[in-house]
Amino acid sequence: MDRLPLPLDGITVVAVEQAVAAPFATRQLADLGARVIKVERVDGGDFARGYDTAAQGLASHFVWCNRGKESVALDLKDPRGLAVVKRLIADADVFVQNLAQGAAARLGLDAATLCAAHPRLIAVDISGYGPSGPYADKRAYDMLVQCEAGLVSVTGTPEQPVKAGIPAADIAAAMYAFSGVLAALVRRGTTGRGGPVEVSMLEALTEWMGHPLHHTIHDGTPPARTGLAHAVIAPYDAYATADGGRVLLSVQNDREWRRLAGQVLGGAGYGTDPRFATNAARVANREHTDALVARALGVLGTDEAMARLEGAGIACARLRDLSEVAEHPQLAARRRWREVGSPVGPLRALLPPITLPGGGEARMGDVPALGRHTEAVLRAAGMTDDEIAALRRDGVAA
Fold it and tell me: Is 0.90 topped by the overall pTM?
């Protein structure tokens, strides 16, 4: 049987993007087969290129979010550079931008303007707080939005709130932009029309606040910050093992607690002890509950602790650092690692989590050097060699 093509083969995306939110969204599209033309500044490109040099001299953020794209370096403040972008958009299926609030509209690159001119175009505006309201013009970096959306308030210990260790607001916005494009492409397939797609980082991350937000709205009190513990379930925490590891376990119901007590804690009586027999009792006596579990696991090595817990049917996990994640046996067994090309040579990269059995593998293209595709893209757009040379000479293209 012939393998199915990647679902976005034949789709062209133009992106005027920077940092994480838009680039991560368009990388998903590239992985699924879309051609993504990334428009960057001539003076340094996407500023995420300069965040660090951890990936053999390249920035880890940029490597993560920008494989498989064609980099075109243009000065959009010059009318000639802007005209080139508009020419590219005229032939595209999707346009994505996450410029500072108001910048796209000043350039005529906002979704409303572009969709009026190109009815089949899907145009995505990603912003921090949305195009209206008192916060519309506020700067919206990831950590700021984590604070505004309340994520920081529920993350950390009772004494200290902390931000998430990943750019959660950027990722949330990126994934809603990605799914918004897919939905709009389906709608265009039935109606023939594209249209605007709006995503704000605040609204995306507030949606992800789910349980803590609804707990607060309906109960009137926010869940407590409990570190790795769970606010309303016990035992549910990470416990030290004898060889320096840590194992996280979760007991979801009283049947599981009785199995844990009898097969791991060494005392079946704990299963029916009124101090621990119900989840409500265990939460009320969390300190004693945790002490029982900590004492039992603290004399076992990590491997033995995991085996005991799994043998008792208790949900558990190793608390891994990122070096251990990079060598995770499950990812290795499922062959999830690949290499992608880059200006500094091959780099290790994880297959995207959307797997389409029976179809082609995700298209994990190279991480582009700044302006690597400028000449080819401009020539394909109909520009002559002399016109391209003039743009380069005047610093409008690089």
Answer: yes
